[in-house]
C-alpha cells in the first residue's frame, strides 16, 4: 500500500541556495511531522501540522526554515540560504489522529540534503 | 517528555531472543513508552508501545516494570533483518507536545549469523 513518500530522495545544494523538500503523507492522515536527522544521531523534531494548521514550529532551527501544508495534505519544507550545517536527512511522518502520542507515526524514507 | 537511557550497542545471534533494555526513571503518569527502529538508510518504523501493561504484537513484546521506570523490548527470534538502531521513547500527549517524538541515540543492534 501507499506509504509516506518524500521527494527528492537526494538533494545537493550550493551554500546560499534555497531548497524545497516535499512530503506526501498517507491519505487521510491528520497529523504531519518534520524531523531532522544529522549523521549518526537520532531524528530531532522540527515542526507539526494538524491538517493545514501549523501548531508547533518550536524545533525549526532558524527563520531560514519554513514549512507549509496549505490544503492539509502535501507538505513542503523550505530552507532559504542553505548553510553547511543544514546538511542532514529530513524525515516526514504522518499519523491518523490529531496529534495524540498514541497514534503510530509512519515515516517516509527521508530526503538527504548535502550543502556544499 | 521524560528522558530515556539505552545502551549504545548490543549484538545478538540469529534465532535467539534479543532483549533491549531502556531506563526512563522520570517518566510521568500520562507518558507512554514507545519503541521505534531504524534500518540503515530508511525512516524509523514503529514497533510497539505501552502505558503500564505488558504488550505483544507480531513484531515484539514490551515488558514494563511495575514502577514504570524501565522497560525491555523483546525480539523473540532475531533475524538478520532485525539489524537496526532501536529507539526507546517516552512520550505523552499535552497541548504543547502534540505527540512529537524525542529520539535519543538509540541502541545499535547487530544480529549475527
The largest interface is: A-B, 29 and 26 residues
Q: Provide the low-confidence segments of chain A as ranges.
A: none
Query: Can you tell me the overall shape of chain B?
Result: globular
Give me the Rg of chain B, rounded. Answer: 14 Å
What is the overall silhouette of chain A? globular
Largest sheet composition of chain A? 7 strands, mixed
Structural class of chain B: mainly beta
What's the story with the biggest beta sheet of chain B? 5 strands, mixed
Helix content of chain A: under 10%
**Portion in helices of chain B:** under 10%
Strand content of chain A: over 45%
Give the spatial strand order of the biggest sheet of chain B.
1-9-8-3-4
Distance between the termini of chain A: 36 Å
Secondary structure: number of strands of chain A: 11
DSSP helical segment count of chain A: 0
DSSP E strands of chain B, number: 9
Structural class of chain A: mainly beta
- Overall mean pLDDT of chain B stands at 92
Distance between the termini of chain B: 37 Å
- Count of individual helical segments of chain B: 0
Whole-number radius of gyration of chain A?
A: 13 Å
Structure in words:
The complex is a heterodimer of chains A (116) and B (113). By secondary structure, chain A is mainly β. Chain A is built from no helices and 11 strands. In chain A, strand 5 (44-50) and strand 6 (53-56) form a beta hairpin. Chain A is globular, with a radius of gyration of 13 Å. The mean pLDDT of chain A is 94. Chain B is mainly β and 113 residues long. Helix content of chain B is 0%, strand content 44%. Chain B starts with 8 loop residues before the first strand and ends with a strand. In chain B, the strands form 2 sheets. A 5-stranded mixed β-sheet of chain B has the order 1-9-8-3-4, with no helix packed on it. In chain B, strands 2-7-6-5 form a 4-stranded antiparallel β-sheet, with no helix packed on it. Chain B contains no helices and 9 strands. The chains are: A mainly beta (116), B mainly beta (113). Chains A and B meet through strand 4, strand 5, strand 9 and strand 10 of A and strand 4 and strand 8 of B.
